[in-house]
Design brief:
Layout: H1 17-32, E1 42-47, H2 53-64, E2 68-71, H3 85-92, E3 98-102, H4 106-115, E4 120-122, H5 130-144, E5 151-155, H6 160-172, E6 175-179, H7 188-198, E7 204-207, H8 210-214, E8 219-222, H9 234-241, H10 248-251, E9 259-262, H11 274-278, H12 284-302
Parallel strand pairs: 1-2, 1-3, 3-4, 5-6, 5-8, 6-7, 8-9
Helix pairs in contact: 1-5, 1-12, 2-12, 3-4, 5-6, 5-12, 6-7
Length: about 300
């Protein structure tokens, strides 16, 4: 994985198809314990958004590699008092070996990466969630033994998670269907980028019909209907998104071997029912665990430990 050493990951499409497959293979080996690289480096977590899985999984992954983690909460740094991002980036670049940033604006990631020489990892922005997509694709591969020709249907808001799923799915040859209410589709430029990557070899479908989108799908995936920063819209969104709820009735239209994924946290009774997330088809907890393994592979790769 020498090609990833020192590189940023701001979008899942920053990876080549070969690099994506190699990362997934490394993550699988690390999860099985057959590959145990050491990397005594320092990771900084610069998170402007609340986090459970991303914060903990990155922290544990770095510790397991033999490194250290510094939590750079903006509330206790000069970022909260208006220090320019280029200044913060250039200073932290002198202290840290790698930084994972969780923020609202994708442009903040791009600015930080421009001024810092160390690897910068997108730990979530309003535009993409590439680390989540790595774990998602890894989980699908574990369940089906392949990625090509597997159909994943994402239901709900065409948000950052949907964007990264479109790109990652297209890269590995999965069929990706996105079912959303009108006006909540994923960004048109991301859809076009995914179609360009797929080159007609796999399906990229955007639809407003949840039942049609689910028919024959092997993976049903959902996320909260209102992301962080959209809390005031949550109540008004519920009636619009109700037909896209992942529940037992909708699940019956999927393939007989279908699994259910959710990036969490889940609002049970809204985008997913208790029966769906707790049922035999749920792989949500495996998916959450795989965040740590995928990110460990990514950290080891960008830090040159592989």
């Amino acid at each position: 994985m020498a090609t990833l050493t020192g590189r940023d990951l701001l979008s899942v499409a920053d990876l080549s198809v070969e690099e994506l497959h190699q990362l997934l293979d490394l993550a699988t080996q690390m999860k099985a314990g057959t590959l145990t690289p050491r990397c005594e480096k320092v990771l900084g977590l610069l998170f402007s958004k609340a986090s459970t899985r991303t914060r903990v999984s990155f922290t544990v992954a770095m510790y397991q590699l033999g490194g250290q983690v510094i939590d750079l909460n903006p509330n206790v740094t000069q970022v909260s008092r208006g220090e320019p991002l280029p200044d913060t980036a250039r200073v932290l670049d002198r202290y840290l070996d790698v930084v994972a940033i969780r923020t609202f604006d994708q442009a903040d990631l791009e600015t930080f990466a421009h001024y810092a020489e160390m690897p910068v990892i997108n730990a979530l922005s309003d535009r993409e969630h590439p680390c989540q997509a790595l774990a998602d694709i890894m989980t699908v591969g574990e369940c089906f033994g392949q990625l090509e020709d597997v159909t994943l249907t994402y239901l709900g808001d065409g948000n950052n998670v949907a964007h990264s799923l479109l790109l990652a799915g297209a890269m590995v040859g999965m069929n990706i269907r996105i079912a959303t209410p009108a006006q909540f589709e994923p960004a048109a430029e991301i859809v076009e980028q995914a179609k360009k990557i797929a080159q007609g070899k796999s399906e990229i479908l955007i639809t407003h019909d949840p039942i049609e989108a689910v028919k024959g799908a092997q993976v049903l995936y959902t996320d909260v209907w209102a992301s962080m920063g959209q809390e005031e819209e949550a109540r008004t969104r519920i009636p619009l998104f109700q037909p896209y709820q992942v529940n037992e009735d909708l699940f019956n239209h999927a393939d007989g071997s279908a699994i259910i994924l959710h990036c969490l946290p889940a609002h049970r009774g809204e985008e997913i029912t208790d029966g769906a997330i707790e049922g035999a088809a749920s792989r949500v907890w495996d998916q959450a665990e795989n965040r740590m393994h995928a990110q460990k592979a990514l950290l080891a790769s960008v830090l040159g430990a592989i």
